[in-house]
Amino acid sequence: xxxxxxxxxxxxxxxxxxxxxxxxxxxxxxxxxxxxxxxxxxxxxxxxxxxxxxxxxxxxxxxxxxxxxxxxxxxxxxxxxxxxxxxxxxxxxxxxxxxxxxxxxxxxxxxxxxxxxxxxxxxxxxxxxxxxxxxxxxxxxxxxxxxxxxxxxxxxxxxxxxxxxxxxxxxxxx
Length: 174
Hints:
Layout: H1 2-24, H2 28-55, H3 59-82, H4 90-173
Helix pairs in contact: 1-2, 2-3, 3-4
């Protein structure tokens, strides 16, 4: 997906600019706000792209979305606790760490699934190549047979021509 790669490059530049600007141009709090906004944009974009790929038939993308879902759920729990909507308990206190750990696990599973798919595609391509080689070998064998038949016919024709030449010489003598 080259178009998505271009968008990700633009977002990466925006995040880098935000971090660079924090060091040299604006205050830390402004930099944090810009970085948070940029990361929210990147995260949202990655989820949207993952969903589109999953809808297009990418099984790895479904696992990828589970990873993002667990991380986002942990972040939502943390925000709800910070806003005073949820009380402090284990999941609200450590939800983002749990979500992040599950995200890494699901991303690893997604990557493993993508590697498996790539290996299957490679095996299919190798099988097709082997079939092509077999067909080529058969055609080459047939070509050699035809060439041998042509060589034999040529030898027979030259022999017959030589015989005719000899017969013609003998008939002119006598």
